[in-house]
Design a protein that fits this description.
single chain, binds nicotinamide-adenine-dinucleotide, Aldehyde Dehydrogenase, Chain A, domain 1, alpha/beta, NAD, six-stranded mixed β-sheet, 499 residues, Aldehyde Dehydrogenase, Chain A, domain 2, oxidoreductase
Length: 499
Amino acid sequence: MQELTHYINGEHVKGTSGRFADVFNPATGEVQAKVPLASKDELDAAVAIAKAAQPAWEKVNPQRRARVMMKYVDLLNRDMDKLAEALSREHGKTIPDAKGDVQRGLEVVEYCIGAPQMLKGDFTDSAGPGIDMYSMRQALGVSAGITPFNFPAMIPMWMFAPAIVCGNAFILKPSERAPSVPLMLAELLEEAGLPKGIIQVVNGDKESVDAILYNDTVQSVGFVGSTPIAEYIYGTGCSQGKRVQCFGGAKNHMIIMPDADLDQAADALIGAGYGAAGERCMAISVAVPVGEETADKLIEKLIPRIESLKVGPYTSGNDVDYGPVVTGAAKENILRLVQTGVDQGADLVVDGRDFALQGYEDGFFVGPHLFDNVTPEMDIYTKEIFGPVLTTVRAKTYEEAIQLAIDHEYGNGTAIYTRDGDTARDFANRINIGMVGINVPIPVPLAYHTFGGWKKSAFGDLNQHGPDAFKFYTRTKTVTARWPSGIKEGGEFSIPVME
Ligand code: NAD
């Protein structure tokens, strides 16, 4: 049994708390490693190391900091296969999907190479007589990030790449369900030239999260995970005077208009609903066909596509559409919610409950499910299922369809399938959701735009990556300067205005 470590001050360090969590291979159901769960003391010790290392790193000029990121991109590409294999082994997603996970993080690292440009300040010459005014963006000090199991490479990189290139030290507390890749990512960053103590990985659970939230040195906290924990971390972190951004759960609707290309829409729903076993915050989990005829045709097109989905372990290579879910507990929760759907009267038109994979009977595989005639009060509509379960809510009109998405408490992503520009434009303008796809099912913005939901899907006012990340990980200082020769008129008692 492998015992995983923390990554502190450039070393793999064994846990000392005596507490561990099991790390599964979801395809076989076996425990493949145990991960140490840090105590408050272990977390605080890592923060003290970060605090000591950070000032020198902040003084390294931005171009040299960016060069570490350049080298990091090379190393991530060099180790892509290794990273993807480790990721699939703990998470269960297919190898091509695992490579996408690394790639989407890597693209944010590439964006961070532009740090010298992003960190350039503003300057106003002669803002007043003999007065210059300039502003600069300075690092916060020590930042921390708490990440979910479903993107063990991408989400940590979304946080630590901008934090570090801005001159901060970073403490990463990854998901205890998929901790190996974050450890590898930290090691590679030091191989790229990052000084010791600037990136550290502290594995753990609520105890280490609370230690982050109550540590006075930690200036900012980023979180991605489920909404109840996002709310807790946002509330607690803010009450401790920290800068906090938290991204939570989702229930993404895709509206299918009668004029949509239904084959295209059905293909999109298959990928967006069942890819990564539905364990994506941008998965489409609600299909909203407009009109009975659209709904009937869509369901007819979906059923054979769903029934021919190939579910299996990542070791089967490209032959698999999606793998197991992350743990036995996740599988149980999905199947429990499916049962509530049946009990509350929805039509289970594709029933994956009896799915079994020969040779992998103990793996956490869940067959694909499709519900029709779901209504807004049902648990399968209100709750995030986070599994391979697509629900269909039939809407009579476009207005009814958009209203469903507007009224849902989550607001991460959404999509509309239509050939009508007017409808698409109206939808994009009126919808109260952060990321919108027009004939695009998973509208994840690229690295140089920003990522973030609305409503109960995000807390805090800045998004992840893109220009917002440079704002989140720095603070602005504005200097108003006058040289002594400019002072000629004695004291000034009313607020200065530039005339
Ligand atoms: P989770 O909330 O269970 O865990 C996320 C992190 O919080 C982990 O590091 C975990 O150790 C920690 N944590 C768990 N319980 C805690 C507690 N009681 N106190 C303090 N910390 C705690 O989420 P998950 O199951 O790992 O990830 C899936 C969830 O993440 C889904 O809801 C999904 O929609 C969401 N997600 C959101 C986004 C987004 O950008 N909005 C992206 C990816 C995933």
